[in-house]
Write a structure and sequence with these properties.
Radius of gyration: 20 Å
CATH superfamily of the largest domain: Dihydrodipicolinate Reductase, domain 2
Number of helices: 11
Number of strands: 14
Helix content: 25-40%
Number of domains: 2
Structural class: alpha/beta
CATH topology of the largest domain: Dihydrodipicolinate Reductase, domain 2
Distance between the termini: 30 Å
Order of helices and strands: EHEHEHEHEHEHEHHEEEEEEHHHE
Oligomer: single chain
Strand content: 15-25%
Length: 343
């Protein structure tokens, strides 16, 4: 059994609490943060710490889950690693690439696991798409695209002081809402070598960051790509990921297969995600935490067995490196090379 402490008590922390409650090998034992965290600890019947660093030193805690604003994770990870605690951080790993790399190095030096939450990788259809690419079913990669065209009202950014800031949010829809598709794009197609980009603010005039971004990508394998993300498009559309090769095409909408055409005739995967959601609706139980549970279970198994998590800190750095390159390209007005990270 791995005992977890939660740092932060926003909406996503509740998802993690649900996931931990459903897990057979992980459980929640403490929560740290402000008034909301104190209420959450009382609701869950677990310990409470007003000071997150004190939670990192709690002898009853084996690992911490960070559900904080993205820009404050560095110090908490270093505090946890220094005290021998494993860390599972919500996406993105950080907002600054150098700080993200320092987090990875600190955990490696301390001999503790560092994971980053990208629960879409644990869903059946994204995993099947990745497997198809790996076995060469798409042939030579030709192009790929991702689009996250959502709508967030002004109240969304006004609801928390950290939203829409460079220091704590790290950017706009690219690094926040679109980061899951960004991760899956890299997971399936490999790393990006060069980018050109443009950003704009079309609706949310009171935030520091973009609410709309487009980018042209050149992958290291020679394929070309397009990235689109916005929180200004009413009423919003499903998240979209397209993978095209000389022998096939796969299109995912909200992590479900919308198109699956392979020259080798391999059938599309069965929609396990839809079945889980349907079962949840029938029993009036929210099912979305199940994908977080799968990642928590993998992280727990990795810690208990001594292996690396499937989605460790170095994997988490890949999407951050690309996001930062997109922002740099938009500022520079030209082509930018994506930082190459040590594997």
């Amino acid at each position: 059994m791995l005992r977890f402490g939660l740092i932060g008590a926003g909406n996503i922390a509740r998802t993690h609490a649900d996931a931990l409650r459903a897990s057979d090998r992980a459980r929640l034992v403490a929560v740290a943060g402000g008034v909301g965290a104190e209420r959450m600890a009382a609701d869950e019947g677990v310990g409470y710490h007003a000071d997150a660093v004190r939670l990192c030193g709690d002898a009853e805690v084996d690992a911490v889950i960070l559900c904080t604003p993205s820009g404050v994770r560095h110090d908490y990870v270093l505090a946890a690693a220094d005290r021998g605690k494993h860390v599972l951080a919500e996406k993105p790993i950080e907002v600054d690439l150098a700080r993200g790399e320092a987090m990875v190095r600190a955990c490696e030096r301390a001999g503790v696991a560092l994971g980053v939450v990208f629960q879409s990788r644990y869903k059946p259809h994204p995993a099947a798409a990745r497997a198809a690419v790996e076995r060469g079913a798409l042939g030579t990669p030709v192009m790929a695209s991702m689009a996250v065209k959502w709508h967030r009202p002004p109240e969304y950014y006004a609801s928390a002081a950290w939203r829409g800031t460079w220091a704590l949010d790290g950017g706009g829809p690219l690094i926040n809402q679109a980061i899951h598709n960004l991760d899956m794009l890299l997971w399936c197609m490999g790393d990006v070598a060069r980018v050109r980009a443009a950003t704009a603010n079309r609706l949310h005039r009171d935030i520091e960051v973009e609410d709309t971004v487009v980018a042209q990508l050149v992958f290291e394998n020679g394929a070309l790509g397009v990235l689109e993300a916005t929180t200004a498009a009413y009423p919003g559309s499903p998240r979209r990921l397209e993978l095209h090769g000389t022998d096939g095409t796969i299109v995912l909408l909200d992590d479900e297969v919308a198109e699956w055409e392979l020259r080798d005739g391999a059938p599309a995967p069965v929609s396990e995600a839809a079945a889980v959601v349907a079962a949840a609706r029938a029993t009036h139980v929210m099912a979305e935490f199940r994908w977080h549970q799968r990642q928590i279970d993998d992280f727990t198994d990795a810690v208990l067995s001594g292996r690396r998590p499937r989605l460790d800190g170095r994997e988490g750095l890949r999407s951050l490196a690309l996001a930062r390159a997109v922002y740099e390209a938009a500022r520079a007005g030209g082509e930018v090379e994506v930082a190459r990270l040590a594997r």
